[in-house]
Design brief:
With 127 residues, the protein is an alpha+beta fold. A five-stranded antiparallel β-sheet has the order 2-1-5-4-3, sandwiched between helices.
């Protein structure tokens, strides 16, 4: 599945997501639900959050971060070298958001279904 397909599927499944970006291993934006600038902003926020969490627990691999404010949440999930960062409203269910983001990242690993060869129509001469 491509990153853009994964984003589309996430928005079909989750009404809680406002913005989301999928980042590659080095932090570059693979796909974003908003403008290029918004995706790059989310990538910078993700880098800052991971750095801050790493400073608090330097011996641990950061795999999940949640930040809450009165009006919004930010969720970050890391898996298989990729990162998903999403914003959601204040009523977002954390467990469901994390599950949806992890599922989205795992779907990127899936191979697209193989295309079946087309049957060739017989020509009038072949009959």
């Amino acid at each position: 599945m491509t990153p853009n397909e994964a984003l589309a599927e996430l928005f079909d499944l989750s009404a809680q997501v406002r913005d989301v970006a999928i980042l590659g291993e080095s932090g570059f934006v693979l796909a974003s639900s908003g403008t290029v600038e918004r995706g790059e902003h989310l990538a910078r926020v993700a880098g800052d959050l991971v750095a801050a969490a790493g400073a608090v627990r330097p011996a641990s691999e950061v795999s999940r971060i949640e930040v809450r404010s009165e009006s919004a949440h930010v969720f970050l999930v890391r898996e298989s070298g990729r990162t998903a960062i999403a914003t959601a409203g204040d009523d977002a269910v954390a467990g469901l958001m994390v599950y949806d983001l992890r599922t989205m990242l795992r779907r990127l690993e899936e191979e697209p279904p193989a295309k079946r060869p087309r049957k060739r129509k017989k020509d009038a001469d072949d009959a």
